[in-house]
Amino acid sequence: MEYLTHPEQLAAIDSPLYLAIGTFDGIHLGHKRVIQNAVHQATLRPGGRSGVITFHPHPLEILAPQHAPVALAAPSQRLPLFAAQGVDFVLDFAFSREFAMQTPAEFVDNLLRQCPRLEGITVGSDWKFGRDRAGTVALLREIGQCQGFRVDSISTVMVQGCAVKSTRIRNIVREGDLAKAHFLLGRPYPVQGRVVRGRQLGKKLGFPTANLAVENQLLPPPGVMLVEVRIEGDPAWKTLPGVANLGHRPTIEPKVADQHPPLLEVHILDWSGDLYGRKLEVALIHRLRAEQKFSGIDELVSQVHRDRESARHLYTRLLAEGFTALAQEPSQAALT
């Protein structure tokens, strides 16, 4: 998959083009349907190529920062997710106020200038484009009929009666329903960050943990979770089961517990090694319990033992039921 950063690079692609266009925050099941349609249309055309056009940062970060949503996926997480859909290239360019000031007609004219062999565009059914979001799918389809490209709009995906929307998924993550977030995303909700040095208290207590400086991503409420971990630089890019605590460590630091952001501490089951400075991707699979304040270290250690065994047993059961690490999607029967 090619990675493009400037719209002008599209002109060098001398093939029939089929594009999926959108913000694609999180790349949930609905986004995948949009992208997969563009890929499918390209396969029907001899020599056809498919691509994604997306933007960074989120348009609201430029136009209305006070209303900008927290990202469901870090920029570095999105590229492998796009590649997994089978697209030939991704154009991920910087969103700006100048770009936002284009009228819908100017947006399409510029796109055609950069893609003279454009033959198809796929978007979500509620997609808007151009200044003040004045462009609609109906207008895009009308322009396409005049300019010779097809327009496909993909209706909102429903999973067991729940609309798959980024806003909905954010709310679900905030509520701590990681299983439901997994179902709507098509994979466990992942966060990532680099391992930083802590007080090494977990190691002294027999539970070495990696303290993660999480990037600007949405986090669930404080608590203990079953997780899967991928380690940057691991040639096999394998997943490792673990148990993580997200919170303020009220038992360890009761006086300052509410004075700093929550810390994500990850204990990888049956693994040892040096992770300082390494980047981890941590998939949040299941919330085991809320954060608690214990009477002392001994009570805390006893509970951590129970948490570790709970995580181990749950992970074993999930694998026996066919859980697929970091890539599971709901069955087609669940999608409507």
Overview of the molecule:
The protein has 336 residues and is of the alpha/beta class. The chain contains ten helices and 14 strands. The protein has helices at 29-43, 59-63, 75-84, 97-100, 104-114, 137-147, 166-175, 178-185, 201-204, 297-320; strands spanning 2-4, 17-21, 49-56, 89-94, 118-124, 150-154, 158-159, 162-163, 189-196, 210-214, 223-231, 240-247, 263-268, 279-290. The strands form three sheets. The chain has a six-stranded parallel β-sheet with strand order 1-4-3-2-5-6, sandwiched between helices. A six-stranded antiparallel beta barrel has the order 9-10-13-12-11-14. A hairpin with an 8-residue loop joins strand 11 and strand 12 (240-247). The chain is elongated, with a radius of gyration of 22 Å.
At a glance:
Residues 325-336 have low confidence and may be disordered. This protein has helices at residues 29-43, 59-63, 75-84, 97-100, 104-114, 137-147, 166-175, 178-185, 201-204, 297-320, and strands spanning 2-4, 17-21, 49-56, 89-94, 118-124, 150-154, 158-159, 162-163, 189-196, 210-214, 223-231, 240-247, 263-268, 279-290.
Write the layout of secondary structure elements.
Elements: E1 2-4, E2 17-21, H1 29-43, E3 49-56, H2 59-63, H3 75-84, E4 89-94, H4 97-100, H5 104-114, E5 118-124, H6 137-147, E6 150-154, E7 158-159, E8 162-163, H7 166-175, H8 178-185, E9 189-196, H9 201-204, E10 210-214, E11 223-231, E12 240-247, E13 263-268, E14 279-290, H10 297-320
Parallel strand pairs: 1-4, 2-3, 2-5, 3-4, 5-6
Antiparallel strand pairs: 7-8, 9-10, 9-14, 10-13, 11-12, 11-14, 12-13
Helix pairs in contact: 7-8
